[in-house]
Amino acid sequence: MTLRKDRAIVAPAPEMMMRFDPDEVQSALRKSWSLSTARQWTPDNPATGQCNVTALLVHELFGGDLLKTPLPAGDHFCNRIAGRRYDLIGSQFDQPIAYMDLPTSRADAERGATNDE
Fold first, then answer.
1. Is 10 part of any domain?
2. How many CA atoms lie within 13 A of 67 on its CB side?
3. Residue 95: domain span
4. Under a CB-based contact definition with an 8 Å cutoff, are residues 66 and 105 in contact?
5. Predicted confidence (pLDDT) at residue 96 exceeds the cutoff of 70
6. Mean of the pLDDT values across residues 75-102?
7. What is the distance between the alpha carbons of residues 49 and 81, in angstroms, rounded to a whole number?
8. Mean pLDDT across the stretch 14-31?
């Protein structure tokens, strides 16, 4: 849960974070992705368009850092937890991407996580 203090979003205290198991999280995410979580979603490539909402959810539940990599089609978001990058949405790409791992904000990631995206 995100706590609000004076209208600023504050990450939960470390003792309130859930245990991060990337395989469990990836499995749960795959079951939850749908056309309602990204308009680009397809049954053949369910990760398409899910990077914003997925990176935001993982950040909210497990903390760490939000990262972005500019791509021709738009920014791609992923997470860094305990010093390691986790791109739980990378399966959407046909080719490996050259990560830039630019630190970013929730506000930046939220811009692409609207119903219009």
1. no
2. 19
3. 21-30+38-111
4. yes
5. yes
6. 94
7. 22
8. 83
In a domain, 46, yes or no: yes
Is residue 58 included in any domain, yes or no? yes
Q: What is the pLDDT of residues 47-86, one digit of tens each?
A: 998 999 999 999 999 999 999 999 998 999 999 999 999 9
- The three state secondary structure string of the chain is CCEEECCEEECCCHHHCCCCCHHHHHHHHHHHCCCCCCCCCCCCCCCCCCHHHHHHHHHHHHCCEEEEEEECCEEEEEEEECCEEECCCHHHCCCCCCCCCEECCHHHHHHCCCCCC
Predicted TM-score (pTM) of the model is 0.79
Say if 4 falls within a structural domain: no
Q: Average pLDDT, stretch 87-105?
A: 93
| Structural domains of the chain, count | 1
115 pLDDT tier (thresholds 50, 70, 90): very low
Q: Tell me whether strands 102-103 and 8-10 are parallel, antiparallel or unpaired.
A: unpaired
